[in-house]
Amino acid sequence: MKVFNNKHEKGRHFEEEAVKYLKKKGFEITATNYETHFGELDIVAEKKIEHLIVFIEVKAKEKFTGMHPFEAVDRRKQRTIIQCAKAYMMENHVEKVFVRFDVVGIITDNDEVEEIEYLEDAFQG
């Protein structure tokens, strides 16, 4: 069982697991933990051949809670991610690309990754 000093450290650990997973799926990681004045983007990734930029939220939940990680990305969280994505695109002069919002759901057991699920096009911007 992993031991984390705080929630922030735990979150970063699972975001790193998500990055490994995404790289195996062919994504180029452009940014992690990108701060805007609206909030933070967990992962920004690209598939340049497809002219696609993907803003990815990472959620991890212990399986005993009975809550699926995807459920934690509610409408309020979606609005925040969309605002952050717009800020990212303006700050980095990103244009003429397709944009998608995805979620990586990590189901854990005693803070160990049990399963990673990936939801493409989880919501619209």
List the keywords.
single chain, 125 residues, Trna Endonuclease, Chain: A, domain 1, 2 helices, 5 strands
Describe the structure.
There is one protein chain. By secondary structure, the protein is an alpha+beta fold. The chain has one domain (7-123): Trna Endonuclease, Chain: A, domain 1, CATH 3.40.1350.10. Helices cover 28% and strands 41% of the residues. It has 2 helices and 5 strands; from the N terminus they run H-E-E-E-H-E-E. The protein has a 5-stranded mixed β-sheet, sandwiched between helices. A hairpin with a 4-residue loop joins strand 2 and strand 3. The longest helix has 18 residues, at 7-24. It is globular. It starts with 6 loop residues before the first helix and ends with a strand. The relative contact order is 0.21. The mean pLDDT is 94.
Helix/strand layout:
Layout: H1 7-24, E1 28-35, E2 40-47, E3 52-62, H2 75-91, E4 98-109, E5 112-123
Parallel strand pairs: 3-4
Antiparallel strand pairs: 1-2, 2-3, 4-5
What number of domains?
1
Task: Indicate the low-confidence ranges by residue numbers.
Answer: none
Reported by name, the CATH topology is Trna Endonuclease, Chain: A, domain 1
Number of strands: 5
Q: How do the helices and strands follow one another from N- to C-terminus?
A: HEEEHEE
Radius of gyration: 14 Å
Main pleated sheet: 5 strands, mixed
Helical content class: 25-40%
Q: What separation lies between the terminal Cα atoms?
A: 38 Å
- Order of adjacent strands in the largest pleated sheet: 1-2-3-4-5
Helical segment count = 2
